[in-house]
Design a protein that fits this description.
There is one protein chain. With 101 residues, the chain is mainly alpha-helical. It is 66% helix and 6% strand. It has one domain: MazG-like (Helix Hairpins), CATH 1.10.287.
Length: 101
Amino acid sequence: MTFEELEQSVIAWSDARGIIAHSDTKTQFVKAVSEMGELADAINKIQIDKISDGIGDVLVCLINVAHMLNMNLTDCLAYAYDEIKDRKGYLNSSGVFIKEQ
């Protein structure tokens, strides 16, 4: 299944369960943040299955947010990539990205 097909399946799943009708971008964003916390815990414990599930859960919430705004994740990712693709710099030993001017 392509990413776009998976995205449409998530939207259909969310719609069938009333998530689209009874939620909004703010509640889906808060849910995404909650899922990020679970993902962080799984990463700290190096629980590969839970990491995979956590990444997927965050994506489900972001798909819902994008859909509610008449967007999709592929276009959002393309937009973000277009912003960074020519950016030059490096990640220092403290984990800070230093942009070249």
